[in-house]
Design a protein that fits this description.
12 strands; 4 helices; ten-stranded antiparallel sheet
């Protein structure tokens, strides 16, 4: 469409001159003659700016460019609205389009286009819709944040509860293990005590039984010298037996059943008798005043084999008793007698 005012159309003139209706120049008689219109500077203004549409006398002039932009904007708004389903609108800044009022304004001044930050996705929506959409999105985001926070809190509480349960279970297991150890230790101590008491009782019974089989070599005595005692009285430098000091003539007895393997005088031992037991142990009786048995004689526990004297290397009347094992080594007579259940 041209931007200048259109010239008036010429009436239809038939070929040839006809009726009285038309004049000689082809015009209707009632209309009068037509004037030729030539645009001048006074009739039209020069076009300024982009797509300036001049106003027509008696009607509106519409610019095809403006209509095209409007259609594009409308189609774009619809496309954006349909493409953004379920998502927040993306703001796109575009310049403001002139409205119809500005196109038909009588003002001679042309408004300058200005930019705007209005997003195309909001075209065609009301403020109420925008507020409701924003509120719904905010509520949805808030609900998600609250749900995540509750889930995290639940996870923290669950983890804390699990750790507490594990700690309690560990503590209970440790307490149970400790109680079990204490019970085992107590049971072991009781068992050990019972075993010790049983062993002691058995030993007492054994010694009591042995005591019936063994006896002390003499009675009414005093221990004057012990085994291993050092002194110049003994040629070896120490005492090799146990001395029972008693009056001369005190009876000497067989400590256990056995056989007489030696009887007679033996130097510093004076009169000495040797009693050999069934296990090979030898009992020596020295410094006797007299011998009552002979070699090869069988004796029983408590039989008299001689008497206390002061023969040999002595300082007074006493029984010098020695104990030798089957291998020939000497042992402490006191310990040996006690091991047989005898009390000195």
């Amino acid at each position: 469409m041209a931007s200048n005012r259109p010239a008036p159309e010429a009436p239809f003139v038939p070929s040839g001159h006809g009726t009285d209706t038309f004049g000689y120049d082809g015009h209707r008689a009632e209309e009068g003659p037509w004037e030729e219109w030539n645009p001048t500077e006074e009739s039209i203004r020069p076009v300024r700016g982009r797509h300036r549409v001049a106003k027509q006398r008696g009607g509106l002039a519409r610019s095809s460019t403006v209509l095209g932009v409007g259609v594009i904007a409308a189609v774009g708004a619809g496309g954006m609205a349909s493409a953004q389903t379920g998502k927040p609108p993306v703001p796109i800044s575009m310049p403001d389009l002139p409205n119809v009022g500005s196109l038909i304004s009588d003002s001679d001044e042309e408004p300058e286009p200005q930019g705007t930050a209005t997003p195309l996705s909001s075209i065609g929506t009301t403020s109420t819709d925008t507020t409701e959409g924003t509120t719904d999105a905010g509520e949805t985001l808030r609900a998600r944040i609250m749900a995540q926070a509750e889930q995290q809190q639940a996870q923290v509480e669950s983890k804390a509860a699990a750790e507490a349960a594990a700690a309690a279970e560990k503590q209970a297991a440790e307490a149970a293990a400790k109680a079990e150890r204490e019970a085992k230790a107590k049971a072991a101590a009781a068992k050990k005590k019972a075993e010790e008491e049983a062993a002691k009782k058995a030993e007492a019974e054994r010694l009591a039984k042995l005591a019936k089989q063994y006896t002390l070599p003499t009675s009414s005595y005093t221990i004057s010298s012990t085994f291993g005692q050092a002194g110049a009285y003994w040629s070896s430098g120490h005492h090799t037996g146990l001395d029972f000091a008693a009056p001369t003539g005190t009876l000497l007895k067989a400590v256990h059943s056995g056989t007489i393997t030696s009887a007679g005088y033996d130097g510093s031992y004076g009169y000495k008798t040797v009693l050999t037991l069934e296990d090979g142990t030898e009992i020596w009786y020295a410094h006797q005043s007299s011998i009552s048995v002979s070699v090869g004689q069988k004796v029983s526990t408590g039989d008299v084999i001689g008497r206390v004297g002061a023969t040999g290397n002595v300082t007074g009347a006493h029984l010098h008793l020695e104990v030798h094992t089957a291998s020939g080594g000497g042992v402490d007579p006191m310990a040996w007698l006690q091991s047989k259940g005898l009390t000195l």
